[in-house]
Amino acid sequence: MEVGNGSDLEVHVFQSSSELLAKLHEKWGSVKKQPYPAMYSSIFGGIILDPALMVIPIDDHMVHRGHGVFDTAILLNGHLYELDAHLDRFLQSASKAKISSPFPRSTLRSILLQLAAASKHKKGTLRYWLSSGPGNFLLTSAECPTSAFYAVVIDEDFSQCKEGVKVITSTIPMKSPLFATMKNVNYLPNVLSKMEAEEKGAFASIWVDEEGYIAEGPNVNVAFITREKELVVPFFDKILSGCTVKRLIELAPKLVARGRLNGVKFGNLRVEEAKDVAEMMFVGSTLPLLPIIMWDEQPIGDGRVGELTMELSDLLWDDMVAGPETHRTPVPYKD
After folding, report:
1. What is the pTM (predicted TM-score) of this model?
2. What does the alpha-carbon distance between residue 44 and residue 56 come to, in Å, rounded to a whole number?
């Protein structure tokens, strides 16, 4: 495209698909590291290994209306962690969003496993979407031929988080319970909340509901260790039911048995109570646990990463790396 100073702008017209594909290959050929080793598209009906072809239709209602849901699974040491829990939540979100899957659950699961194997990667993230489908630019997808399923493996490095971060209270309104409890693609509030935090030198933000209770972070759950040594997680009635934090709650009683924690429970905390806890943390798939040491420029506890936070982090990380097979689904790689 030749860019002029005004009306003399001349937009290039691609004369053929081969010319456009050559341009796309030129773009991806300059990338030092290929971040997307494999993608699946139900529109194409298979797995795509060429990044130039990892596209979705512009008239997909997930694109122009935000009518879609998604979820994520961690790929670590050749296993997909908590795949079934994430897939169950994915389909629950789809039901709330009134999107029917083009395949039964067993087929979706098989596609994700085959996709991970085709990527030949043993560490990264697997993200997948269910869209109401392509077909037109109307408000609803009633006249669209079918819903669509997309998934991509992302070559993404991550490790256990041991450094603490700062957070702020978000001024961006949080989603209503209907939309907060389904993992849908309408993430503009989440994006603006995260950007607000970064602009203020913080890692992320904390949402507080209209009653003054702690809700969640922009794409993570939040958990607390009180001065009475209880692990407390906010109820899921107004926020997303986090698969990773639910697994943490299942693992935490091990610390109770060791006498390190006095209890594990769901509970609502007001801002004043939350800022007075001994330790605080974010919990989410790609972290999986991130210590929080300062909130709105006020130290949490003594302002350092707490011992119990790190013990919980160790429990969760060990479970991801070498936990029971019921939570780690092996990927069927082929030599």
Report:
1. 0.94
2. 9
